């Protein structure tokens, strides 16, 4: 996707794909006229409150446990600036640029609803960060739900902190100057609007959904290769059998497997060699399908949140007839639970892959040379890569423990139930990274197993996937440095066009089968 593409938000509901287009692929972001009108209306309500002196949380009061401290005049602008400075206290390594961009995009979507009260020029400044390639350096750790991450984004608008710009880390003020931008002067409620809501967990989850969608497809491809290399019994994937347990994800995986394995001479010649396969082989539709169903559920939760109003307080109505409502829409329980659930689902995708690849290297169950190498003994072959996969599975199991059920008390008992949704989304990103590596290892091993079976014909999809990997990685004849091979396999899995090549080959050949 080119940077020339533009995503316009404000009319129809946004999808996770819109966030990914902006955050990962460099599409520009713009708001519709209707969205700008909503933003201006809410800001006019803020100005009416400031003039009237009516107490409204976060507009002319302190924050959190200081909500009963009234402020006025110049204090309101100082409160907004001080909110960003005091809340920008995250620690740890910075987020990846695409992660920060996703967070900013989700925040702008929230403001476009017109219930926040943020000044137009602040939203314009956030759009400029995205569209000019200025990405604040945001420490990954320190959020119990929101606040710190967006505060680090916010201080960049003031010309404070470091940003990623043109491939370098430079002071925010320098990047703004080079783009002809001036630091933003904040008004009443702007600071609270910038740190409030659920854009951190929601934006991060949109990127995670993109990766989970792709990995779910690759898991079917690679799992089918392992199934074929182990001469699995195709009856387990029979459409009429799977239809007796009609989970949608399971049906889709079964369809994919049958398409990928169609025309396999290896499987045709192996029919009846065993009564039933091990569960990690015959239950691919059930396990992969369950992951797909949880992904579908998580996607619904995230997209609802993406199109929700998640500020506190909310400004409703018009300047002539308005309501200011303090509530808890910034609580991210729905997204936190969705991210935790998806974390578990993706960990299971890696777990069953590790069990399959372990069978590939074990001559007692594979019927293939030990560790998939000729001259075992002088060659260790694929022995230790299974250790690596097991280690990654162990890490995933630890991270699959839910973040949302943990809880702490913050802000002097005022904020005494927390979602930990950003933590849930960040560990989901780590699980997705680990699962990518596990599948990359299985891909390597399944392709190597094919080297011992290539006198027979493979399935239309599995054969295409084998040839695709061989374009980058040669067959394994004797021990060599394996780390670069794993990295090349993982890079192939991350390449969105490669997956389409495999499935397109299946579609092109389906009429001939």
From TrEMBL:
Transmembrane segments: none
InterPro entries according to UniProt: Aromatic_Lyase (IPR001106), Fumarase/histidase_N (IPR024083), L-Aspartase-like (IPR008948)
Superkingdom to which the source organism belongs: Bacteria
Pfam family membership, one: Lyase_aromatic
Name of this protein: Histidine ammonia-lyase
Protein's organism: Pseudomonas congelans
């Amino acid at each position: 996707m080119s940077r020339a593409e533009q995503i316009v938000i404000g009319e129809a509901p946004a999808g996770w794909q819109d966030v990914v287009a902006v955050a990962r692929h460099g599409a520009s972001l713009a708001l519709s006229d209707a969205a700008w009108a909503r933003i201006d209306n809410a800001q006019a309500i803020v100005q009416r409150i400031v003039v009237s002196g009516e107490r409204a949380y976060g507009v002319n009061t302190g924050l959190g446990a200081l909500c009963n401290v009234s402020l006025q005049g110049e204090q309101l602008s100082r409160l907004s600036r001080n909110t960003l400075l005091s809340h920008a206290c995250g620690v740890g390594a910075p987020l990846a640029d695409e992660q920060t961009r996703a967070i900013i995009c989700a925040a702008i979507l929230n403001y476009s609803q017109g219930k926040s009260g943020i000044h137009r020029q602040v939203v314009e400044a956030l759009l400029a960060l995205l569209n000019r390639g200025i990405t604040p350096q945001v420490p990954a750790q320190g959020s119990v739900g929101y606040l710190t991450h967006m505060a680090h984004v916010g201080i960049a608008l003031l010309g404070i902190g470091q940003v990623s710009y043109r491939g370098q880390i430079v002071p925010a003020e320098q990047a703004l100057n080079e783009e002809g931008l001036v630091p933003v002067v904040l008004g009443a409620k702007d600071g609270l609007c910038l740190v409030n809501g659920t854009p951190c967990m929601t934006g991060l989850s949109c990127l995670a959904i993109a990766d989970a969608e792709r990995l779910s497809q690759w898991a079917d491809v690679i799992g089918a290769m392992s199934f074929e290399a182990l001469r699995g019994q195709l009856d387990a994937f029979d459409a009429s059998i799977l239809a007796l347990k009609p989970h949608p994800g399971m049906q889709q995986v079964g369809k994919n497997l049958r398409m990928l394995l169609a025309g396999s001479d290896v499987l045709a010649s192996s029919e009846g060699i065993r009564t039933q396969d091990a569960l990690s082989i015959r239950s691919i539709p059930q396990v992969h399908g369950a992951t797909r169903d949880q992904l579908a559920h998580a996607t619904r939760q995230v997209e609802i949140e993406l199109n929700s109003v998640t500020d506190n307080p909310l400004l409703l109505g018009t300047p002539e007839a308005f309501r200011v409502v303090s509530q808890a829409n910034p609580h991210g329980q729905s997204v936190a639970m969705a991210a935790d659930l998806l974390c578990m689902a993706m960990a299971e995708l890696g777990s069953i892959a590790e069990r399959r690849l372990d069978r590939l290297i074990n001559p007692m169950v594979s019927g293939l040379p030990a560790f998939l190498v000729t001259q075992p003994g002088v060659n260790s072959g694929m022995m230790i890569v299974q250790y690596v996969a097991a280690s990654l599975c162990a890490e995933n199991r630890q991270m699959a423990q839910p973040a949302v059920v943990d809880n702490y008390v913050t802000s002097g008992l005022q904020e005494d139930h927390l979602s930990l949704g950003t933590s849930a989304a960040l560990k989901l990103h780590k699980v997705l990274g680990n699962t990518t590596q596990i599948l990359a290892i299985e891909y390597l091993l399944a392709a190597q197993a094919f080297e011992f079976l290539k006198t027979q014909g493979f399935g239309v999809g599995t054969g295409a996937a084998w040839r695709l990997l061989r374009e980058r990685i040669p067959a394994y004849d004797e021990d060599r440095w394996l780390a670069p091979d794993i990295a090349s396999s993982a890079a192939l899995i991350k390449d969105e066009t490669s997956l389409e090549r495999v499935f397109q080959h299946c579609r092109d050949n389906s009429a001939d089968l």
